[in-house]
Amino acid sequence: MSIFDVQGSETETSSLLHGTPQKKQKTPLPKLQIGILMLVQMAAPIASMSIYPYINQLIRELDITGGNDAAVGYYAGIIESLFFITESLTALKWSRLSDRIGRKPVLMIGLFGMGLSMLCFGLSTSFWTLVISRCICGMLDGNSGVMKSMMGELTDSTNMAQGFALIPIAWCFGGFVGFVMGGTLARPQDSWPNLFAGQFWATYPYFLPCAVSASVVFVSFMLVFLLEETLESKRKRNIPSDTTGNQHLEESRSNESPSENMANVPLRSLLIRSIVIPLANQAFLSFLDICIFALMPLFYSTPNYLGGLGFAPPAIGSWMALFGIIDGLFQVLFFAKVVDRLGPKRTFYIGISCFIPIMIMFPVMSWLVFSRGIDYMVTIALLCQLVLIVMWDMSLASIFMFVTASAPAKNVLGAVNGMGQVTISIAHAVGPLFASSIFAFSKDHNILGGHAVFVVLCIPAVGMLWLASHLPEELQNRDEDE
Fold first, then answer.
1. pTM of the complete model
2. How does 413-428 read in b/e, with b if 16+ C-beta sit within 10 Å?
3. Cβ partners under 8 Å of residue 82, min gap 6
4. Each residue of 191-247: pLDDT tens digit?
5. Which residues lie below 8 Å from residue 68, measured CB to CB, with a gap of 6+?
């Protein structure tokens, strides 16, 4: 043995004796289960985003505004917000129910409600039927919080970044499909008059994208049967063991009672700083994020004389689909690497710092339209905004990691994510209504050249930079508690 071998063995022995920390090897993701979960996750953005390319045109055609194009934003914001208003009233109850009865039953109820509401939306011929269909969807949907709980239960501290990066990716790809679907299939009697020439399609010109979306949702409903239950107290009752005999049965019996007790812990006991700070950041982030995606189709569809781009639904669907697909590719290829290198807090900071530049791009495009018309410079500005939105979206997966890591035990993961989903739903309810109303008010009264909404939204963005500084420097290691 050489002297180098002796020195190496002494160094290893010394490291073991002194407990020098070594980097933990990454646990492989359970690819099949996470793959099925992400396919189910994609149903929500496909269904919800498919209405965005045509919702403003639908409001005009129903004559809800009495021909006032500037007021379309008010009603679009109301319809977009209704889902989240009703969801905020029920999301926590669904998430807490999933802590008791399991994740799968709650997922199936949410998917069934979503599919039913999309069919109702496509058959709507008045403002109030649109309202009712969106309320049905929100009331029965508790899936977002439950899916984050399932992702938290399928991952550990070594692969959490990889797992949670997939959630916004599923939204991006689902949004891509939804935008294309809504823009392409809306008013099929105009695009394919030979196939859709009947009176039905003249009466319900937006039923086709809704029906296709509902079909996707019902396929996802069937995929849930292939998912394994991730709630620990329910898994152990259903998973036999050939290797450990009665040991697992005894562990199951001993663990059932604590699980049930933890699942019923009072919410007040969870309102601690380590949980509230990530939830507050998530609420601000969700508010600003939904404002971006409410303003984009509204700005794209607004006529040129009001400072918009004047795009038709197919063009709106194509641009937003491009955003979705490039964003999704970036997150899947680079997000986990960025988090490994910079850490989740720095990644979060980089993302939220992009909001103000994103807002600045809207009046820049408006100025370009007024001065040059729609030309290559507008395309360049759209692509620059796309890059900024891709960077912004890194903050979404980052905050999901902080919220999940803040749960003191896995048996209250549903409750913590349920509280998070309530804050998201409230932010998503207020965001589109606030952003589209200020947008319409700015255009109606020509405040700051019609661009007051972009200035107003920069105020909470500055506040969020301060709030983010209170996040922990490192994620809590959940594996140490297990």
1. 0.69
2. bbbbbbbbbbbbbbbb
3. 131, 134, 135, 138, 429
4. 888 888 888 898 899 999 999 999 999 999 999 999 888 887 777 544 443 433 344
5. none
